[in-house]
Specification:
Helix content is 4%, strand content 40%. By secondary structure, it is mainly beta.
């Protein structure tokens, strides 16, 4: 599994989302109260951008005329036909047994951790003599 640095955490404010391109895929990254979630930015119905959809909460009804609202901003509604998906899991609310949007793992790491790696660039001394830059090999 390849890892990709796609954005600074500060670029996605709470309650917002951005689209990033990774290996030819458009992926939508959501910020929900400082937790980040990623979904393929494509509704399985007809391919609309879910990142352009509406963030909504979950409405349930235990009985006629009674409605409960929960999970504010944790669902996304397709902008074309209104299909709803759980941002945290990609699960469809319309047909949960059959449909889902591909979800991806997201981690927030400090820049110092990302710089470390097995490779070290070779360096060479450089000096300026008169108006010429001289590279010593």
């Amino acid at each position: 599994m390849a890892r990709h640095v796609v954005a600074k955490a500060t670029e996605i404010l709470n309650g917002q989302q951005i689209t990033v391109a990774v290996e030819g895929r458009e992926i939508c990254i959501f910020n929900i109260e400082g937790d980040y979630f990623a979904l393929l930015d494509r509704c399985p119905h007809e391919g609309a951008s879910l990142c352009r959809g509406f963030r909504i909460g979950l409405v349930t009804s235990p009985s006629p005329g009674t409605y409960n609202f929960s999970r504010a901003g944790e669902m996304v509604k397709c902008p074309w036909h209104g299909w709803e998906f759980d941002i945290k899991t990609g699960q469809s609310w319309c047909d949960p047994k059959r449909l889902r949007v591909r979800s991806y793992q997201v981690a927030v790491e400090s820049g110092e951790e990302l710089v470390k790696g097995p490779y070290v660039a070779q360096t060479f001394p450089v000096s300026v003599e008169g108006s010429y830059i001289v590279l010593d090999l």
